[in-house]
């Protein structure tokens, strides 16, 4: 129960921010916060991907995280799904990485 609540809380934080960030970049052409995106941009720039065209990816990630949160609240956390989504979010330095590591830890090493 505590693990589900923690995962749901973290999922709402990550999902809400990624959804807002994705919508914002699609509407305004820039991300929330500073003019230059965070260190996560280096991953995409190394792959020659324009980070300002990733709005739909951020929206999709945000919706997946929010879906996980809803699922965790209503029926409990599917630990394997939570761990997989967390692994797929590790690129989102530093904010998403830290929170995703929390979800990964809770999912893979449940207490009790």
Description:
The protein has 112 residues and is mainly alpha-helical. The protein has one domain. It contains five helices and no strands. Helix 1 runs antiparallel to helix 3 (55-74), helix 1 packs antiparallel against helix 5 and helix 4 runs antiparallel to helix 5 (95-108). It starts with a helix and ends with a helix. 29% of the residues are buried. The model has no long low-confidence stretch (mean pLDDT 94).
Give the tags.
single chain, mainly alpha, 5 helices
Summarize the structure.
The chain is mainly alpha-helical and 112 residues long.
Number of continuous helical runs: 5
First-last Cα distance: 11 Å
Tell me, briefly, the overall form.
elongated
- What are the low-pLDDT stretches, counting only 5+ consecutive residues below 50? none
**Radius of gyration of CA atoms, rounded to a whole number:** 14 Å
Main sheet specs:
none
Helix proportion: 55-70%
Order of helices and strands: HHHHH
> How many structural domains?
1
Beta strand %: under 5%
Mean pLDDT: 94
The total beta strand count reads 0
Structure class: mainly alpha
Which SSEs are present, and which pair or pack?
Elements: H1 2-28, H2 41-46, H3 55-74, H4 79-87, H5 95-108
Helix pairs in contact: 1-3, 1-5, 4-5
